[in-house]
Amino acid sequence: MIQFWFLWLFIAIVVVIVAFTLRREPDDMPRKDILRAVETNAGSMGLAEKSFLWAFSWLDTRFRIQDYWGMSRDAYHSVHRQMPLTHAEKYKLRIIWYWYPLYCLGGISFLAFIILVISGTILGFYYVPGGDLSSDPTPAYASMEFIMVELPFGYIIRSIHHWTTHFMVASVFLHMCRVYFTGAYRNPRELNWLIGVALMFFTIFFGYSGYLLPWDSLAFGAATIGINMANSTPLIGDWASALLFGGTELTGQTVIRMYFLHVFVLPVIVTALILAHLFIVWVQGIAEPH
């Protein structure tokens, strides 16, 4: 039943975010009158939006979240006057995307990453990272078969994880193309372009490492190609194979190594790069179309 509640929790979070971001708050409304606004506009608000505003106002009354956030923002802009406002602050946008379709690709990639983290966490509860070649089926394949056949909603969760991976790779690639062809990688955004290139590489490796985890015939073929490419690398071939595949030949350790990289190493690296990427975009602003 746990995956059922995770699914509905995810749906509820998405509904709350959409309901809250699509609603435009009047400019003359004091920030401390949220409760009064909920009571006044109770008929025009949905249950998710009212629940979110009630919870936020309860926390804000006790912990002064908005006051401290406003003080921090004012202090930042007073100390760093040379730093421009964000695109949303400059044009007073109150939604999380822009009206230019190609400028949504970065946000779409980030949303896909969040979906992958949630669905991958649910799958990790039931996946067994064992690739012992002497057993048929291997523990990894048996656990994946259990998820697909016997686990309630397991087929749906794995399908979401599978297709969102393709969606993220495509959106990241198109995002890179948009940045390149609009010249958004130029001064002063060179560092963020390099971070984006690194994110593209890690996104592809994310997909490849996850592709090997079922340890079926397709995964074994892909692992064979990958380890042959690693062994063929001049000077560091053996080292690269041992690091990525657990040796110069495919063994049961290969699945464990890929599982460790996919679940522990890559998420930390990608999350840190995404935060740095978004922070630089927030500081420098978006290269607007002309």
SS element count, helices: 12
Strand content: under 5%
Along the chain, the helix and strand elements come as HHHHHHHHHHHH
CATH class of the largest domain: Mainly Alpha
- N- and C-termini, Cα separation: 52 Å
DSSP summary, beta strand count: 0
Total individual domains: 2
What does the radius of gyration come to? Answer: 23 Å
- State the CATH topology of the largest domain: Cytochrome Bc1 Complex, Chain C
What does this structure look like?
The chain has 290 residues and is mainly alpha-helical. The chain is built from twelve helices and no strands. The chain has helices at 2-22, 34-40, 47-63, 65-79, 87-90, 105-124, 139-149, 154-181, 190-212, 217-231, 237-245, 252-284. The longest helix has 33 residues, at 252-284. Residues 22-30 have low confidence and may be disordered.
Which short descriptors sum up this protein?
290 residues; Cytochrome Bc1 Complex, Chain C; 12 helices; 70% helix
